[in-house]
Amino acid sequence: MARCTPPALALAAVLAVVAALLGGAQARHFTRCGLVHELRRQAFPTDKLRDWVCLVESESGRETSIKSRQNKDGSYDYGLFQINSRYWCGIGKVGGDCKMKCEDLLNDDISDDSRCAKKIYARHKFLAWNGWKSKCRDKRLPDISKC
Question: Which of 21, 82, 113, 125 could be cross-linked to 59 through a Cys-Cys bond (beta carbons 3.0 to 4.6 Å apart)?
């Protein structure tokens, strides 16, 4: 029978705490209806839900942990809504017009992402997102009627 020494117990406790902390920051992949449900919970306007779903599907594939390749201007796009670091968030520090860290857009809690996306929309409508312009504007939008 193996004995647990105090250092081994301390290491196990530290690993358990780290695992618990990381567990809360995991990424999330939404189903289409799961995304619709979450957007409703985040109070996105019902009449624009199909556009928001199309935007998210075209920008991040409904995945919260996506960080883009570096853009031509040196910025990156983060999270479910692919929010740009040049204008909206700060890399490694609170910054941008949304006054948040870009890395906070990569976890499974989309409440801060949603606030920032709504701020972007209030200023630029969907035209701030290239994915929406190329794949959603004047195109057939996703069917969310079963959601």
Answer: 82
Catalytic residue (choose from 38, 51, 57, 59): 59
Answer whether 59's CB lies under 8 Å from 53's CB: no
38 is catalytic: no
Q: 108 Cβ partners below 8 Å, 6+ apart?
A: 25, 26, 27, 28, 64
Residue 25: its pLDDT value, please?
55
Give the pLDDT score at 27: 83
* Stretches in the chain below the pLDDT threshold 70: 1-25
**pLDDT tens-digit series, residues 26-45:** 789 999 999 999 999 999 99
Active site residue 77: yes
Q: Which two tokens stand for residue 124?
A: 């630029």
Structural domain boundaries of the chain? 27-135
Choose, from 51, 57, 77, 104, the residue flagged as catalytic.
Answer: 77
Q: Residue 103, Cβ neighbours under 10 Å: how many? A: 17
Looking at domain 27-135, which of 3.40.50.300, 3.30.70.100, 1.10.530.10, 1.20.210.10 is its CATH number?
Answer: 1.10.530.10
